[in-house]
Design a protein that fits this description.
Strand order of the largest sheet: 3-2-1-4
Number of strands: 4
CATH architecture: Beta Barrel
Helix content: under 10%
Radius of gyration: 13 Å
Strand content: over 45%
Structural class: mainly beta
Mean pLDDT: 94
Number of helices: 1
Low-confidence stretches: none
Order of helices and strands: EEEHE
CATH topology: OB fold (Dihydrolipoamide Acetyltransferase, E2P)
Shape: globular
Largest sheet: 4 strands, antiparallel
């Protein structure tokens, strides 16, 4: 699959919480966590589970940088 997003962060699913409609997925990327909310249907179609290796793809019109 080709994507226009340039920020691909490889990591491991640390936690997944399934709701009625949505799934909250926490991905461990090195020392950091990236959190995503996706549809439960998508999580089920991908058979996501804790420990899976995944790629968090970030596409944003603005990325802020903080120093200090």
């Amino acid at each position: 699959m080709t994507l226009s997003a340039r920020n691909h962060l490889m990591g491991t699913i640390d936690e997944i919480q399934l709701g009625d409609v949505l799934a909250h997925v926490t991905v461990r990327v090195g020392e950091h966590e990236v959190e995503s909310v996706i549809t439960r249907r998508s999580a089920e179609e991908m058979s996501l589970k804790k420990g899976d290796t995944v790629t968090a793809v970030v596409k944003a019109t603005e990325v802020m940088i903080s120093k200090g």
